[in-house]
Design a protein that fits this description.
alpha+beta, five-stranded mixed β-sheet, 198 residues, globular
């Protein structure tokens, strides 16, 4: 069973990797930690800030409005520029990760999310994030944000951030890297095809 779950995880992330490009998959995981993801109406308590941690190190929070401005203009704020430099992330790749439209079959995604493998994947992604000002489980917040955003058949990472019902999203960089390092990007899987509507 463990091997089946591991294959399902790899297949899901592979599909995202192929859609977003190998180098932006880790950015996708960092940005939303979902492996990585038409605009939905923003919730009243949408994410205001994103903070990346690595062990005991904590980067200053980056406002979602800074990410939106960067996505629109291509010009990062001073804090975002510093974070991109420290993480050695190419600006154009970061911008693409934030704005890349991913086509999704929302009915298939909803059905897959209700399966054992689907819930396992949401729970796995949720191990990389912490949300403030909420008592809901992280995996439910992620799943609901993606499903709400995917209603039109496509979504971007920024759209998902706008739909998360929490004020701050804290991403555990160490955990993201740990998960990303276990993904075999050269294998194609059926689960990703189902989730992404191929």
């Amino acid at each position: 069973m463990h091997q089946c779950l591991q294959m399902a995880e790899q297949q899901f992330f592979l599909g995202l990797g192929q859609r977003l490009g190998r180098t932006t998959t880790t950015l996708a995981l960092v940005a939303t930690s979902l492996a990585g993801l038409a605009v939905a109406v923003p919730h009243a308590n949408a994410v205001d800030e994103v903070q990346i941690t690595y062990g005991a190190l904590e980067a200053p929070p980056i406002s979602v409005s800074d990410l939106e401005s960067f996505a629109r203009t291509g010009i990062p704020s001073r804090d975002l520029q510093l974070l991109l430099n420290v993480l050695r992330i190419d600006e154009e790749q970061a911008r693409q990760a934030l704005t890349q439209n991913v086509l999704v079959d929302v009915d298939n995604l909803r059905q897959a999310s209700n399966t054992f493998a689907g819930q396992f994947l949401w729970r796995l992604l949720a191990t990389t994030v912490t949300f403030t000002d909420t008592t809901s489980p992280a995996w439910e917040l992620l799943r609901n944000a993606v499903l709400d955003t995917a209603a039109s058949g496509q979504l971007t990472m920024l759209d998902v951030l706008r739909a998360i019902e929490a004020s701050t999203l804290q991403v555990d960089g160490r955990r993201v890297i740990e998960i990303a390092s276990q993904i075999d990007f050269d294998r194609i899987g059926a689960l990703a095809s189902i989730l992404l509507g191929k």
